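Running this now, will post back.
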Amino acid sequence: MTAISGSACGAAAYVRTDDRATHSSSASGFAAAGPGDESWREWTRRIDDLLSARTLADDWDGQGAVAPHPALVDGAITLALSFQTDGTRPADFVIPGVNGTVVFEWHDPVEYVEVEVTAPDRAVRRAVKRETGETQVNHLVRRC
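Update: finished.
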């Protein structure tokens, strides 16, 4: 993994715009992780995926997709570091969106959760209950 310089802005780097702290862990049961466990290693792999996304160029998918700006990817890395530090279960996938965003996805039997990083300091969290289709959307803003 390539070293990341800078601060992850603490464990609660992102807050909902209504000022209540939120993490993807509010959706499902997640346990705290430390540097020696598999969860920590999985987050490290996701961060490596994000570092690879910094090198994408427009039309990276051959269908006209917009590459995420490196500053936006850096914001996604900050969010990933925050999730890792908080002990949030690792995202199943971290992928570039076709419109220049970065998307974290968690696929659970009860709920699908995605966090789409739309700007270096902004993200949108969407959670969909599988049984009912009930959807919750929260806008997240980085505090520092």
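The two ends are 25 Å apart (CA to CA). More later if anyone needs it.
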